[in-house]
Amino acid sequence: MLALSGYPLGLRFVFVDPVPNAPGGQIAEQIVADYADAAAHARLAECDVVTYEFESVPEAAAQKLAERVLVLPPPSALATAQDRLSEKRCFQKLGVPTAPFAPVSTLPELERAVADIGLPAVLKTRRLGYDGKGQFVLRKPEDVALAWAELGGVSLLLEGFVRFERELSLLGVRGKDGSTVFYPLVENHHRDGILRVTWAPAPNVTPELQARAEHYSQLLLDKLDYVGVLALELFELGGDLYANEMAPRVHNSGHFSIEGAETSQFENHLRAVLGLPLGATAVREPCAMLNLVGALPQPESVLEVPGAHLHFYGKAPRPGRKVGHITVTAPTRAELEARVARLSTLPGAV
Amino acid sequence: MLALSGYPLGLRFVFVDPVPNAPGGQIAEQIVADYADAAAHARLAECDVVTYEFESVPEAAAQKLAERVLVLPPPSALATAQDRLSEKRCFQKLGVPTAPFAPVSTLPELERAVADIGLPAVLKTRRLGYDGKGQFVLRKPEDVALAWAELGGVSLLLEGFVRFERELSLLGVRGKDGSTVFYPLVENHHRDGILRVTWAPAPNVTPELQARAEHYSQLLLDKLDYVGVLALELFELGGDLYANEMAPRVHNSGHFSIEGAETSQFENHLRAVLGLPLGATAVREPCAMLNLVGALPQPESVLEVPGAHLHFYGKAPRPGRKVGHITVTAPTRAELEARVARLSTLPGAV
């Protein structure tokens, strides 16, 4: 999606991905290699700028590459976002509210953290978690041993469980010159830890709530000397916002923006890392994004729904794998809900 | 632009173009070959469907290919549109108004046609004219000899000169099942025979005018058993519409639709030739398209204008060559005009 939005800007792309025939490689040059591969770095060093859309690129590889070519967002931001403890401490230092948290490396530390934070709580690996993987929800004292058996042995973080009313996310974009734009808050619905539906804009968002979310994002963007799209996941509870995590990349909850916003997150990410002026982020019509997980519907069945647009990623369907998404717009929220209800019956979107 | 709109639908593309490194070849497989080349046909015959975005593909080549693979729009429609006389007779037969016209092959025939139709009139080659090439405007009797000296020797057509108030165009799309959708009429401004600016929707279009244009397009689409996007260029004069010509392909005056319409003409063309449901054609905000001719502006200078989006085609600039376009949207027509005025000062758009 980055390449598709960049070709009209006259850009050319080289993708590094260890998996052959990755989506990017189907429409541009792909180097099949590890992210730290020397030959891959030599090829990337010929580019004007290197960016990532996968946050688990090893920081060391990104730092090494940054000695030879401009790498944005800065590898230090990648490092902060990769480690849940650094991330939470960054939130804390900036005064961005979060659930209470504590680092955990041993079973006694876990027991102490549970005593401090209370239950329910969520035990998470500090690194490499995504789509709900590497997480264990502790609801009762007996769960402590189960959680430790499941996740113990790597660096962990225990977080208090926010009984949030809903999950929102904010896409912020910061340019090389420090200018920023923000998309409207969107509302995210997960199942089994995987994002299934995003509503854009999120309903019932006051200007104050939007401003508060933008303030938090602005603090992070400036602190990290960030350039590009930064996604900030937030819990809403009683009118307050708690930062859950940030993703230093274009984000699934921003996919709606291809049809739903004046400038897509992909184009704005590229504009940012290239030092070009950022584009408008307005959402003109109520919009929703439905992920296609584990299966692909017949294109006809999607496209016959008014306002629906299809995005296949060129990935083979596997259980739990995101293989595409649908964006749908409508003139009113009620009509949008009807269209989403209809699309939600299709394979992959069920 | 077809490929960029088709990738999200899960499509793959093979382009045939005699010019190496054509725009399509920069983002997909390109066969560098003549349109009638046997090896190229063998490769195309492996596709599900073949279409064209260049109306001068020889009809014989298209017909031959159609014996092996589905070719849409039908080669017969291509043939009708390639020959100005067939095209005008098709309009005439269907009751679609045109300027008076007469075929011309000899100087005496030209003199007779001028006597019948009167001056001013336009002498045009029957085939291979585009961007104002192969045309001669006759204003006074002495121009007859000059026009003949310039164009004589090939099959010609003399047309009465419509002193039109403005040029409009209508993009119609017909699906395999005969369903049709139409975009709002757009207003086109040329200079030196080359389209420079399209306003979408055209201002001051009554529902009756839109309905009449759609009626004419519907007659053509059905008569030609058409599948895909058909552009119909119309002159408006005193509330009446006169068909100028049709283009059996996605059309420059429809480029605005990438950002400006709910479904782009490119996606709708692909949906049509694949037998998929057609997408909505609504234009939500006033929009304009500025061609970039002979030169490319600095991307910054375009993107700093609110609502502006850039499309470079990967072509080297040459005088008179279309090398890209800018789309710009705005909440009001007045604001749109201000933005267009600003963009109109840039290299390529001047």
β-sheet strand percentage of chain A? 15-25%
What distance lies between the first and last C-alpha atoms of chain A, to the nearest angstrom? 24 Å
Please report the total strand number of chain A as a whole number.
Answer: 15
Q: What number of domains of chain A?
A: 3
Structural class of chain A: alpha+beta
Helix content of chain A: 25-40%
- The run of helices and strands of chain A is HEEHHHHEHEEHEEEEEHEEHHEHEEH
- Please state the overall shape of chain A, judged from the principal axes of the Cα atoms: globular
Oligomeric description of these chains: homodimer
Q: How many whole angstroms does the radius of gyration of chain A measure?
A: 20 Å
The CATH superfamily of the largest domain in chain A appears as ATP-grasp fold, B domain
Written overview of the protein:
The structure is a homodimer of 350-residue chains. With 350 residues, chain A is α+β, with helices and mostly antiparallel strands. Chain A folds into 3 domains: 2-81, Rossmann fold (3-Layer(aba) Sandwich); 100-160, Dna Ligase, domain 1 (2-Layer Sandwich); 166-343, D-amino Acid Aminotransferase, Chain A, domain 1, CATH 3.30.470.20. Helices cover 30% and strands 25% of the residues of chain A. Chain A has 12 helices and 15 strands. Chain A has helices at residues 2-6, 38-44, 59-66, 75-82, 84-94, 107-117, 143-151, 207-223, 257-260, 265-273, 299-303, 333-343, and strands at residues 14-16, 29-31, 101-104, 121-125, 135-138, 156-160, 166-174, 180-182, 186-191, 194-200, 228-237, 240-247, 287-293, 308-312, 322-329. In chain A, strands 7, 8, 9, 10, 11, 12, 13, 14 and 15 form a 9-stranded antiparallel beta sheet that branches. In chain A, a hairpin with a 5-residue loop joins β7 (166-174) and β8 (180-182). In chain A, α3 (59-66) runs antiparallel to α4 and α4 (75-82) crosses α5. Chain A is globular, with a radius of gyration of 20 Å. The two termini of chain A are 24 Å apart. The model of chain A has no long low-confidence stretch (mean pLDDT 95). Chains A and B meet through α11 and β14 of A and α11 and β14 of B.
